[in-house]
Task: inverse folding
């Protein structure tokens, strides 16, 4: 058995309201139900599934909806799995940033472009200063 735990963490670039709507559509629940049951401010065991493959599919579906879902082995099973006693708050979660919606948001692209331009301007200024100082030593 695998526990699917949701702590309320969102994928970078997603807003809470957007995630609530996406999860409501995914789970076929109302937005109010999703907001009340999943966004409690604490870790919520969303569901238990039998296979790791199904658990990873849920994790992928949540990531596409903009939410980070942790997949933890059920500790009640003999041995408790490799993550026995795992603390959900200290569990590493891979954020699907390459496919994140962040890259598609125009505001994020404009900000990144502005940072690149500022970096290029700073580089040009450093080169000019080095050249001027080098020429000053020659004369």
Result:
């Amino acid at each position: 058995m695998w526990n699917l735990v949701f702590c309320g963490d969102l994928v970078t670039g997603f807003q809470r309201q957007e995630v609530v709507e996406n999860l409501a559509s995914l789970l076929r629940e109302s937005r109010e139900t999703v907001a009340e049951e999943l966004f409690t401010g604490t870790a919520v065991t969303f569901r238990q599934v039998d296979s790791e493959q199904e658990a990873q599919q849920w994790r992928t579906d949540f990531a596409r909806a903009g939410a980070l879902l942790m997949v933890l082995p059920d500790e009640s099973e003999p041995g408790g799995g490799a993550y026995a006693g795992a603390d959900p708050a200290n569990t590493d979660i891979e954020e699907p940033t390459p496919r994140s919606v962040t890259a598609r948001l125009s505001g994020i692209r404009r900000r990144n472009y502005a940072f690149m331009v500022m970096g290029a301007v700073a580089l040009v200024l450093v080169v000019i200063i080095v050249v001027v100082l080098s020429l000053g030593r020659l004369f």
User: Anything to note?
Assistant: Helices lie at 16-27, 31-38, 52-65, 106-138. The CA atoms of residues 81 and 88 lie 15 Å apart. Residues 78-85 have pLDDT under 50 and may be disordered.
